[in-house]
Write a structure and sequence with these properties.
Number of helices: 12
Radius of gyration: 25 Å
Low-confidence stretches: none
Structural class: alpha+beta
Number of strands: 28
Distance between the termini: 72 Å
Length: 658
């Protein structure tokens, strides 16, 4: 056997105080650690970068371990015989928050963590485990312990790049990872003259070199700088909003690619094995009841993880069996995650201002196989028909602006491409990246109030769609995404020309652009030798945006009733409010720009958009229109009846002139 799995269950307790979820009954929570020992010579593990340089135990196996959490029906026979795997985001558990509208917790146990009970009422066994091997334990995060690679005991070194952006003044020292929850790759030497440290306000600006004697590899301890190979100290302080970039020789790379094999082998064990290597029973098998199907969902970073997991071929286990019947990457945009790389930093992802040059958004972007007109390569994410999963890919407006989402459904020059037969793409019109169902607009975090649109009801309906597709072949609804051929996918300048002249609001002139990059000759083997990467500005991928109407709302995609019957302009873009770079996009935050309430308010403000009074006249009429929009989605299998009722209840809380 080339993989040994050992399950150590340290916690077994009632979930949600023993609450019964319809016919499924009560759930229980299991938590602990999964220990793996794998044969580095096996073809099922040999693709892991640096596994040949990992330490081995007495049996010649490479060991690593991960946290895990499982929520399962107490009586498995009353469940639906399906795993719902939530790929954690930087160690954080997100599925209950986004499918059950629950209070977020990394250690879900209380009734409030069950929310509306959706996943439990459906009978899923919900599984989490660590995959990101550079996370530091804390706040209940699901972490993974992976080995450090060495060259027969000698340090392995390589060029590495870190980027720092702070939002408030007074910061003088930062970890090289730029945050307090990720391990930093230590500098091979603390001689600052051997590194290059630069600063610029905007990504497109020329880098200005900071002299080696103006900064140090050091950390502040009790207010005084102390030499540290894992920190950067700048006595004058980091200017808020500005981009600081450090290129240095790092040492001790982690074998991060084990984050793929660990997930593959854990799900295979939970689906097929009666007992682990020590004889511990599989908690998802009982009296002949096991798992028929497994689905995986991930949002943002974890959605990018799923795209790379499938692209790299990890959806086949060691016996050639399909691991997940279906996956649903949410708000991943066109990217993948950088895990199986030496000195990989999977927590980073490119945006227009932040981490712009970090890899992850490289061809192929689409599920269908295409030829890249800029490089001549032919490839696609789904290319193993015997083991590829079904895919429901969902994203928001923010991913078009910051995460190059159009490249999921267009080619490198911006032409529409047909759906892959095993994939559908759904654009959640007008919404922003983080749609917390329990939060409203945030004021002050960006130039405009953030976008409060709640799209969790769409996720619930599309999980049912995915299950029906995988179970009995029921075809899903057609993709809902902007298209070039009907002019709903356009260049930024075209959308800008249509966008209304709302007082105090400036439409962005371009999204996060992407060019052909050069990371060095061995990039495909997981080694990055050129930092920062070279960019060929003569070869730019076409990143398109959704076209808007005269209100500034997007015209294509899957619209919630609140977008179909709007009270505001909802965008996927906003602007930073820091002292520096305040004309840069505010990451993945959208905007909420309410319509004028009355005609008098509209005239007084000079707002060209019709007032709410003029549009609807009364609360009763507004509620009727919301109900009709919700029912149309129910008929199209894109909204559940229970969520249609919720939209109507929310609409009844609005106060529009009678």
């Amino acid at each position: 056997m080339d993989t040994q799995v050992r399950l150590n269950i340290s916690t077994r307790e009632a979930f949600a105080e023993g609450l019964a979820f319809d016919d499924v009954g009560p759930y229980e929570r299991l938590a602990g650690e999964v220990a793996f020992a794998v044969d580095p010579e096996s073809p099922h593990h040999a693709m892991v970068v640096d596994i040949e340089n990992a330490p081995r135990n007495a049996d010649g196996l490479v060991e690593f371990a991960t946290d895990f959490t499982i929520l399962k029906p107490v009586e498995l026979s009353r469940g639906n015989r399906r795993i719902f795997y939530d790929v954690n985001n930087r160690g954080n558990l997100r599925a209950l928050q986004f499918f059950n509208d629950a209070v977020h917790s990394n250690e879900p146990s209380a009734t409030e963590h069950a929310g509306n009970g959706f996943l439990m009422r459906r009978g899923y066994s919900v599984v989490w485990s660590g995959w990101q091997g550079d996370l530091i334990p804390g706040d209940g995060r699901q972490t993974m312990r992976v080995p450090t690679a060495t060259d027969n005991g000698r340090d392995i070194t390589g060029v590495t790049r870190s980027e720092f952006i702070v939002d408030a003044p007074g910061v003088t020292s930062l970890p090289l990872s730029s945050n307090d929850y990720t391990v930093s790759y230590e500098a091979a030497t603390v001689d600052s003259s051997q590194a290059t440290f630069t600063v610029r306000e905007y990504e497109r600006d020329e880098r200005r070199v900071i002299a080696p004697d103006a900064w140090r590899f050091a950390n502040l301890v009790d207010g005084a700088p102390v030499e540290s190979a894992a920190h950067c100290y700048l006595p004058e302080g980091f200017r808020p909003g500005w981009i600081y970039e450090l290129v240095y020789e790092a040492k001790n790379p982690l074998v991060l690619g084990l984050g793929f094999t660990g997930l593959r082998d854990l799900i295979s064990f939970l689906r097929h094995d009666e007992r682990d290597a020590d004889g511990t029973p599989n908690p998802l098998r009982d009296n002949g009841n096991g798992v028929d199907r497994a689905y995986a969902w991930g949002r943002s970073q974890s959605g990018r993880y799923l795209r790379e997991f499938v692209y790299q071929g990890y959806n086949a286990d060691s016996k050639g069996r399909r691991v997940f019947e279906g996956i649903s990457p949410h708000v991943s945009g066109g990217g993948r995650v950088i895990v199986n790389f030496r000195f990989g930093q999977p927590g980073r992802h490119s945006r227009e201002h932040t981490d712009h040059l970090y890899p992850g958004d490289q061809f192929p972007f689409a599920y269908s196989t295409t030829t890249d007109a800029l490089t001549g390569k032919t490839d696609g994410l789904l290319k193993r028909p015997d083991t590829d999963p079904l895919v429901i890919h969902t994203h928001t407006s923010a991913e078009y602006w910051e995460r190059r989402a159009s490249l999921v459904h267009t080619d490198s020059l911006g032409a529409d491409i047909p759906d892959h037969e095993r994939a559908r793409v759904f654009f959640f019109t007008g919404s922003q990246h983080n749609a917390d169902p329990l939060a409203g607009p945030k004021i002050g975090a960006a130039r405009h109030p953030s976008n409060p649109l709640n799209t969790t009801p769409l996720l619930r309906a599309l999980l049912d769609v995915l299950d029906a597709w995988a179970t009995d072949g029921t075809a899903p609804p057609d993709s809902r995404a902007p298209r070039r051929d009907d002019e709903t996918a356009v260049d930024a300048s075209v959308a800008s020309d249509v966008f209304p002249k709302i007082p105090g609001v400036d439409h962005p002139q371009h999204p996060n652009r992407v060019f052909v990059q050069d990371h060095g000759p061995d990039y495909d083997a997981g080694l990055m030798a050129i930092e920062p990467p070279g960019e060929d500005h003569s070869r730019e991928y076409a990143v398109l945006l959704p076209q808007v109407d005269s209100d500034g709302n997007e015209v294509a995609g899957l619209k919630t009733p609140q977008v179909e019957v709007p009270l505001a302009t909802y965008t996927g873009w906003n602007y930073r409010v820091t002292e520096g770079a305040n004309n840069a996009l505010a990451g993945l935050t959208g905007s909420h720009l309410p319509f004028p309430a009355t005609d008098a308010e509209r005239v007084s403000s000079g707002d060209p958009r019709r007032s709410i009074d003029e549009r609807y006249g009364s609360t009763a009429r507004y509620v009727r229109l919301i109900a009709l929009a919700a029912q149309r989605l129910v008929e199209q299998r894109l909204l559940l009846e229970e969520d249609a009722d919720r939209y109507v209840e929310l609409a009844m809380q609005q106060r529009i002139r009678a």
